Amino acid sequence: MDSPTRTPERRRPRLRALLTAVGAAILPVIALAVTVPAGAAVPPTPTGWSLVWSDDFNGSAGTLPSSANWIIDTGHAYPGGPANWGTGEIQNYTASTSNLSLDGAGNLRITPIGSGQNWTSARIETRRADFKPAAGRVLRIEGRIQMPNVTGNAALGYWPAFWALGAPYRGNYWNWPGIGEFDIMENVNGINAVWGVLHCGVSPGGPCNETTGLGANRPCPGSTCQSAFHTYRFEWDRAATPNALRWYVDGQQFHSVNQNQVDATTWNNMTGHAGYFLLLNVAMGGAFPNALAGQTPTAATVSGRPMVVDYVAVWQSGTGPTGPPTSPPPTTPPPGGVDARSTIQAENYQAQSGTQTEATTDAGGGSNVSHIAGGDWLRYDGVNFGSAAATQFSARVASGAGGASGLVQVRLDSLTAAPIGDFAIGDTGGWQSWRTVPANIAGVTGTHTVYLTFSSGQPADYVNLNWFTFGN
């Protein structure tokens, strides 16, 4: 599991570090957990914050979670990615409601089923891959979760997690850990502890001590992690100097990593891209549980104990610098070309490579650019950003690509220029199932030639594009 030539997304701690962590995990705790009934709604937005995204898993019992919010991962790997999801876990992820379903009471259940070395379970990830705080703000990612209620020998091999991966991982699958991984909540083998871990840099070794990562753990306050719901929170603070990452359980901080703990290149590689997507899963077996208990699961491991998720929510603070003042968009394009803040129709390019156009069923009708695959590009001349820096890029996209996915990137003035921003896109449910996806970009002023480039680790077409725009 420590090969320097194959870098999957979720390597796990080495045995010595884990044994130290387990020792810390069994220390007594006197703090009490706050009791909130299962199925409670997403909490009210705290004063000084704004809600970015949430899912409280309301819906009929026995149905899948919202396809508008979540992608269901299946099988033993991403197409073209490392086997066994890069961690040695043995289960087959499915979209079966036996493994993944709403319970009708406002909760999501991810339920491993099996015996011996033959298991099924579930893993989902948010369609959005742009969770990132604006400059001077704090991003708060939170979930209220009950870990699988199983302990001792019956729990060997259970590996529930709530975590986040950097957007550039989509369509590549071999750039871990450089793109960053935030493990908000991890647990193995029914131990009463929550692990919080940062993965970054290079593997093995590097500033994040891969494959261990920079981590800490503690018991759940009051009731055990397995017997009750607890709230797991991660904060990415761009208001502090240096910037900081913080981990909490039931409002109690137990881990932090500051920007100055790693080199500038490593920090930029994991924070300078479009943002992160969130994941929920229960793996069975693999490097982390095996490091603590030998080969897992075992004959004693019981089937059918779900991880229960009440809600997942993302907030951003409303304090701190907000950047330059926003000017209202002009009613007509300024001299010299297209207004960057207007709706730029994708088919109105000046040059392209590898794409086609087709009629669209999206609102407003007209045409969209289609058949876009990795290596294709579109060029738009004379795009005028004005004097107030544009820091946002949004595009109207659709995909019926199944397992294929990739990046939509923005470059200025040259096809070989470094992207100023990007976002990842996977299957949206159909080639005319449209979504508007935002991304942060480096601030741009003046007039430029804009290139939209497309990058994917698979050869298949993976996205259609209807329009795009820029904003503050």
Condensed summary:
With 472 residues, this protein is mostly beta strands. 6% of the residues lie in helices and 39% in strands. The strands form five sheets. Strands 1, 4, 5, 9, 14, 15, 16 and 18 form an eight-stranded antiparallel sheet that branches.
Task: Describe it.
The chain has 472 residues and is mainly beta. It has three helices and 30 strands. It has helices at residues 15-25, 264-271, 287-293, and strands spanning 49-55, 70-73, 92-93, 100-102, 108-110, 113-115, 118-121, 123-126, 138-146, 158-166, 181-186, 194-199, 214-218, 230-237, 244-249, 252-258, 276-284, 307-317, 338-339, 344-345, 351-353, 356-359, 367-372, 377-384, 390-399, 406-412, 421-425, 430-444, 447-455, 463-471. It starts with 14 loop residues before the first helix and ends with a strand.
How many individual β-strands?
30
Task: Give the DSSP E fraction (strand runs of 2 or more residues).
Answer: 35-45%
The largest sheet is:
8 strands, antiparallel
Low-confidence stretches: 1-37, 319-336
Helical content stands at under 10%
Instruction: Please report the number of helical segments.
Output: 3
Quaternary assembly? single chain
CA(first)-CA(last) distance: 44 Å
Shape: globular
Give descriptors for this structure.
472 residues, 7-stranded antiparallel sheet, mainly beta, 8-stranded antiparallel sheet, disordered N terminus, 30 strands
Give the SSE map.
Elements: H1 15-25, E1 49-55, E2 70-73, E3 92-93, E4 100-102, E5 108-110, E6 113-115, E7 118-121, E8 123-126, E9 138-146, E10 158-166, E11 181-186, E12 194-199, E13 214-218, E14 230-237, E15 244-249, E16 252-258, H2 264-271, E17 276-284, H3 287-293, E18 307-317, E19 338-339, E20 344-345, E21 351-353, E22 356-359, E23 367-372, E24 377-384, E25 390-399, E26 406-412, E27 421-425, E28 430-444, E29 447-455, E30 463-471
Parallel strand pairs: 3-7, 19-24
Antiparallel strand pairs: 1-18, 2-8, 4-5, 5-18, 6-7, 8-17, 9-14, 9-18, 10-11, 10-17, 11-12, 12-13, 14-15, 15-16, 20-30, 21-24, 22-23, 23-30, 24-29, 25-28, 25-30, 26-27, 26-29
